[in-house]
Design brief:
Length: 134
């Protein structure tokens, strides 16, 4: 139909009554009839219909790929926001883990060295008491 409109114009461009009245012989519209018959043959041809179906299938595949690509682009913002929140959570958890490690290190140090330190302090206290008090 678009081919016919491009070749012969559309109803807005043509005054059909003036065209019919100016025709002097009966074979004036023969070229138009050949064009219409060729267009009808194209749509009736089985191979052409298969080709049109293949083309439509390819267009649908391209449309699906483009839709998926746009969905991925739209979801990229959500994915980036999720990654940002996950990284903030990991940063907070690592700070808590670092504090816990420091406390554990201090507890291990106290457990390892506190007994000898307490014994040394008691001995020192007893020695000081012995020399100054007695």
């Amino acid at each position: 139909m678009a081919e016919l409109k491009n070749t012969y114009g559309s109803s807005q461009n043509i005054d059909y009554l003036s065209k019919v009245e100016t025709v002097e012989n009966q074979y004036a519209f023969l070229k138009f009839e050949k064009t219409i018959n060729r267009t009808k043959k194209t749509f009736r041809d089985a191979n052409a219909q298969e080709n049109i179906d293949k083309l439509n299938q390819e267009l649908m595949d391209v449309n699906k790929i483009m839709t998926d690509s746009f969905d991925m682009l739209l979801n990229r913002d959500n994915n980036l926001n999720k990654i940002v929140s996950d990284s903030a959570t990991l940063r907070d958890n690592s700070k808590d883990l670092r504090k816990g490690a420091k406390k554990l290190k201090m507890a291990f140090w106290f457990r390892k060295y506190m007994t000898p330190i307490v014994i040394c302090v008691i001995i020192f206290f007893l020695l000081v008491m012995k020399f100054y008090v007695f």
